[in-house]
Write a structure and sequence with these properties.
Elements: H1 31-53, E1 55-57, E2 64-65, E3 82-83, E4 93-94, H2 100-110, E5 117-125, E6 138-147, H3 155-180, E7 191-194, H4 195-201, H5 207-218, E8 220-224, E9 259-266, E10 271-280, H6 284-293, H7 303-309, E11 316-322, H8 323-330, H9 346-354
Parallel strand pairs: 1-5, 7-8
Antiparallel strand pairs: 2-4, 3-4, 5-6, 6-11, 8-9, 9-10, 10-11
């Protein structure tokens, strides 16, 4: 999801103005009922995903070794949360940003056959992420990966998988709305669009503006072709690491990339809202090209990359579906802190509380004991 946070504004993480000063009323005021709803959202979505995409739930690591190359590099500039075990100085362990690369290894490890996949209940930390009404330092998502054949590396297979994921989300919203008396919003079908076409049609719009144009019109959009640069050297839409999604393969429509973001129009925030990032993963040829394009060819010497290049790791499609982000949408919350225990700007927490918007576990003390280290 294209970022809109104004880092020069000390209160830039607040929800849109129309949600403040009484313009928004939470659906849930009972904390325990909210927790019940959060669990219902997550379990319903997970079960629908497992059925629709043929996935099996597996356990997942909370940290990986830096030397393995298993951590997701995101845009390549973010700092991972890192520590050394007390009795093993010099060993660097990292909390993953996501399991994008680990999952592909896990398909090999578990011996998963083509047409079947895995899903994990991933929890991670992103120290350098934006902290605002849709972003948190704490990441919880259904990280999934499915084994495919080399012949499946095409846009039609990608679209078919997207439709299955969207059906899981649509059915989940229907169940949540029926159970808790919320008005359903999502259309029955998802619309496909490409960053290449939107740049041609709206050359002077920002990435976020292009997302808003699409989502306001269609309500649910899979935006294909994330990552890579335009001819002017600027990002085509948003950044992607070079070693998981394929963002350079040419599609039949003339655009590039076998990946994308699942975006929704959020009726509370009145803006585009990313639920999932996913795509067909790199094969050895694409990996080497994308490493060169990102000026990190040395990564090919890491353990994970060697396993991909020598054919040990299978061809896959995969992605992550934000749990708290999905709950924020389904339960019509204006701030992600309403549906997860995180940390946010204490000044913003106070403003929200005075406006009747309570973030889970925060703003309960005169001085927030977690705001500053002693």
């Amino acid at each position: 999801m294209a970022c809109t946070l104004n880092r020069d504004d000390p209160l830039g993480g607040l929800p849109p103005k129309h949600c403040l000063d009484g313009g928004y009323k939470p659906v849930f005021t009972d904390k325990l009922l909210l927790e019940e709803a959060l669990l219902f959202c997550k379990t319903t979505l997970e079960n629908n995903l497992k059925e629709n995409i043929n996935l099996v739930r597996v356990s997942a690591p909370l940290f990986v070794t830096r030397a393995s190359g298993f951590n997701d590099n995101l845009n390549g500039i973010e700092r991972p949360a890192t520590f050394e075990p007390r009795d093993f100085p010099g060993i660097h362990l990292e909390v993953p940003f996501s399991l994008a690369k680990w999952k592909r290894w896990a398909l090999h490890y578990y011996g998963v056959e083509a047409g079947k996949g895995i899903v994990t209940d991933f929890r991670g930390l992103r120290c350098d992420d934006d902290v605002d009404f849709t972003h948190s330092l704490y990441v919880d998502q259904f990280d999934w990966e499915k084994r495919i054949t080399p012949e499946d590396r095409n846009v039609e297979y990608l679209k078919s998988t997207v439709k299955s994921i969207y059906k899981a989300l649509y059915d989940t919203e229907q169940a949540v709305c029926e159970k808790y008396g919320i008005e359903p919003f999502l259309p029955e079908e998802v619309t496909f669009a490409t960053t290449d076409d939107m740049i041609k049609d709206h050359p002077h719009a920002t990435p976020k503006q292009r997302e808003n144009i699409l989502c306001e019109k269609y309500k649910a959009v899979f935006f294909m072709g994330i990552g890579g640069l335009k001819e002017d050297g600027q990002l085509r839409h948003d950044g992607r690491a070079p070693d998981y999604d394929d963002w350079i393969t040419e599609r039949p429509d003339g655009g590039f990339g076998l990946n994308g973001d699942l975006l929704l129009w959020n009726p509370v925030l009145k803006q585009s809202f990313e639920i999932s990032s996913m795509g067909i993963r790199v094969n050895p040829e694409v990996l080497l090209k994308q490493l060169d394009l990102c000026h990190v060819p040395e990564r090919k010497n890491l353990v994970w990359h060697k396993m991909l290049l020598d054919g040990t790791l299978p061809q896959t499609i995969g992605g992550g579906i934000g749990q708290s982000r999905t709950c924020q949408f389904l339960l019509r919350a204006c701030h992600i802190g309403e549906v997860q225990h995180g940390w946010y700007n204490p000044a913003e927490v106070d403003i929200l509380k005075k406006d009747g918007i309570n973030l889970l576990g925060l703003g309960e003390f005169d001085a927030d004991p977690s705001a500053k280290s002693s």
